[in-house]
Amino acid sequence: MTGSNHQLLAQENDVFATCARIKYFDVVLDHGKGAVLTDVEGNHYLDLLASASATNTGHAHPTVVKAIQDQAAKLTQYTPAYFANSTTAKLAKRLAAIAPMSGPVEVAWGNSGSDANDAIIKFARAYTGRQYIVSFTGAYHGSTYGSLTLSGVSLNMTRKLGPLLPGVVKVPFPSPWEQEADESDEHFVNRYFKAFKEPFETYLPADEVAVIVIEAIQGDGGIAMMPPAFMQKIYDFAKEHGILFAVDEVNQGMGRTGKWWSIQNFPGIEPDMISTAKSLASGLPLSAVIGRKAIMESLGAPANVYTTAGNPVTSAAALATIDVIEKEHLLARSQKLGAKAKAYFEAAKEKYPFIGGVRMYGLDGGIDIVNPVTGAPDEEATTKLIYRVFELGAIIISLRGNILRFQPPLVITEEQLDQVFKIFDQAFAELAAGKL
Ligand code: PLP
């Protein structure tokens, strides 16, 4: 790979959040099967991105494909604004059964993770009668006006777009690399909880806040888990002040972390609402907000309606996706293979000082590439690695410029995973030897 291509990738990363322009590799995909993608020239790639965690069941899973075909031949579309359909009704029941909250829940449909997060804002405001929303720096919640206002991952997301949605207050997220080398976990959590409370003590009346929206594990923010003790503190704070607690599960849900929902990695935390999309229907455009019944009943009929939301074909794909996750034990599989991947990258970290950190929660990982001397993020080395891994037959991208995003389809086989490790062995060794 030539230097000029590295340069090109770096430039494209700079405009990451303007999005439509980003393209990592000069590849036109033709088809996919399981964890393998094939381009129009017949080249095969192991997919470590899963369409940004949207194909947890892998590409063209036969059960999902058949469900789509059967439903398309039966009823392809009818807007839920006027008629229910049996497939989407069945899906609502299945989602209620796996919801991470107790008590009766209801589901609201959409077409994307972005619109689901907008819906969370609507339901929270309508139910509480309060106007303020709290979200976190480093978060990515989507591209519609509401969801991009909630986000805090890149200036390019909001440049030229203001004024944004009023009433959204951002608080700092305790990302792992913000912890000082000699700082105890307790001090770190207390420091960030103090920063969290600051707006409430100065200008933000807690009893006027409708909802706190979080990613329990920030995806685009670097596969960074919120420290459980910090989560408990902000959850208790929310309960104390009648503030709703909502979790964006668009990236991290549907089995990615080895649980149905990432929030289930935090015992005792019961969200009032969650949003899901991406892998919900194995990548087909379907989103849902699952929330406590009383909250979901707070909006009148036309307030959150999209003609193609809750579409029967995407709903059939979602039912089949849930079936596949259950029948193929993909939650356990994510945990088991995730542990294997964690062990691999942690061993690599011991060997190569340019690996500054490894986080892995199921098949859901972030690997920090840093300058071995200063420990500073090394975007150039990350870019070189990404291209070398691509040449060797696997597709991976970066987050924040220097974090390898490891999110393969959960159906990846052990043999394929071993092949992935061999590819990284070679790429890491070449980087260490100054050959890239
Ligand atoms: N929320 C999270 C955590 C995401 O990662 C994304 C997409 O990357 C979204 C919301 C937006 O979803 P969509 O692109 O389907 O609108």
Automatic annotation (TrEMBL):
Keywords on record: Aminotransferase, Pyridoxal phosphate, Transferase
Signal peptide location: none
Cofactor: pyridoxal 5'-phosphate
InterPro entries linked: Aminotrans_3 (IPR005814), Aminotrans_3_PPA_site (IPR049704), Class-III_PLP-dep_AT (IPR050103), PyrdxlP-dep_Trfase (IPR015424), PyrdxlP-dep_Trfase_major (IPR015421), PyrdxlP-dep_Trfase_small (IPR015422)
GO MF annotation list: transaminase activity
Organism domain of life: Bacteria
Family: Belongs to the class-III pyridoxal-phosphate-dependent aminotransferase family.
Protein name stated in the entry: Aspartate aminotransferase family protein
Organism listed in the record: Limosilactobacillus alvi
